[in-house]
Amino acid sequence: MGSYIPATSEERQAMLASLGLHSTDELFASIPPEVRLHSLNLPDGLSEMEVSRKVRDIADKNVRFRSIFRGAGAYRHYIPAIVKTVTTREEFVTAYTPYQAEISQGVLQSIFEYQTQICELTGMDVSNASVYDGAVAAAEAVLMCLDRRRHGVVLAGTVDPQTITAVQTYCESRSVPVTVLPVKNGATDPADLAAALSESSACALVQSPNYFGVLEDMDALVAATHNAGAKMVMSANPISLGILKTPGEYGADIAVGEGQPLGMPLGFGGPYLGFMACRKELMRHLPGRIVGETVDHEGRRCFVLTLQAREQHIRREKASSNICSNEALCAMTASVYLAAVGPKGLARVAENCAAHAHYLAAKLAEIPGFSLRCEGREFFHEFLTNCPVDPEVLCARLAEKGILGGLPVDGGLLWCCTELCSKNDMDELVTAIREVCAQ
User: Fold this and answer.
1) pLDDT for residue 2
2) N vs C: which end of the chain shows fewer Cβ within 10 Å?
């Protein structure tokens, strides 16, 4: 491999000019200025040892919470030791996909096993090798449903806001109209969905459990979608599928979700993986790649890249996506986690999550001012409550006690419990909240 030769300032200006831009600031204008990193807050001229010491001093200021009651898309679960033992083996440590695929039989087999597990988890016929994260999976699934006659998209307002933004971004560049439904008592009204769908609607995207933790009326929502001739894309928490009906059982056409709960720790937003699975008739519209099983010329079992619906391999106008890789290491992590816990173990994890969340909800309801926002709605392991004090102030006071409280949402708090939230942890949280509210 040759040396990397950076572009000259003149070459960079020429590239910008071809885009009709005058500066790199214009190129990144869509990124809010407050989140852009212009320089590192480090003195010039430090040695490697000095920089290492400085970074360690900064890292020591990080807070490690004793208990966590926040989810909203990223969840803390117990990860069996075997997961890291397997995935850190030298032959598996790669974040990328092999290009001389058939030579890498071990990696292909690991992807094939992952695809099989995702199909079993979602009740679908076929899965791809994963995409970048759950929001991308949802956006790619929406694009799968578009055709010449149907190009409108309807989103439940209860979908994770980050996912809604990702879908809107994908659709905006393709001039695809997107309708976001209102939220009613933390859920989606099937009548609203039916009214929003038309003959030009390609699909509806619904998340269950939704962003507020509520279980949507998927039977009615799927029926309303199919009655309009559109496809249903269902986003689900993979842990919840250990005890709840699968997207396939509901009759959804495509199942998507964020795979982070399957053996991946909280890591400042990533790397995670998006899982995607669909019915067989939609298989050729799946983005990315699909690993299949076959036999070689001697009749031995082997694995190949069966489908690669991307523009490097087929004509650009027929490409379903520009995604050209998959989260290989994260997908393997999910696969090892699922193999380690098994169906019964996954169900037990899900049952504990639900039981802990319902226990905490009941205890919080005993505190004046802490009532459930979505009264009468069933929930899995997240729930939204009112808060009699400023949510930000309460969370700050809890943080001082080593507790990460719920996420402030619409003047209330979105709480989450997993199997790692013990009864003592929850009782300690309730006691701490009572102390703050009494002051």
Assistant:
1) 45
2) N
The answer on 354 and 283 residing in a single domain is no
Tokens 């989140």 found at: 35
* pTM of structure: 0.88
Amino acid at 428: E
Residue 246: which residues within 8 A CB-CB, separation 6 or more? 121, 122, 123, 124, 236, 255
Q: What is the pLDDT of residues 22-65, one digit of tens each?
A: 998 888 888 888 888 878 777 788 899 998 998 899 899 888 89
Locate 75 and state its tokens. 């969840």
| Listed residues 316, 336, 356: the one ending a domain | 336
Q: What is the domain extent for residue 179?
A: 81-336
The structure tokens listed for 362 are 């009941």
Backbone angles phi, psi at 274, to 5 degrees: -100, 125
Q: Are 256 and 98 in contact (CB under 8 A)?
A: no
Burial environment of residue 263 by CB neighbours within 10 A (0 to 12, 13 to 18, 19 or more): buried
Phi, psi of 407 (to 5 degrees): -90, 125
Helical axes 328-365 vs 423-438, angle rounded to 10°: 50
One domain for residues 357 and 283: no
> Smallest Cα–Cα separation from 273: which of 161, 65, 103, 117?
117
Structural domains of the chain, count: 2
Asked if 289 contacts 308 with a C-beta cutoff of 8 angstroms, the reply is yes
Q: Is 216 within a domain?
A: yes
Nearest alpha-carbon partner for 305 in 99, 113, 120: 99
The owner of tokens 């523009």 is 311
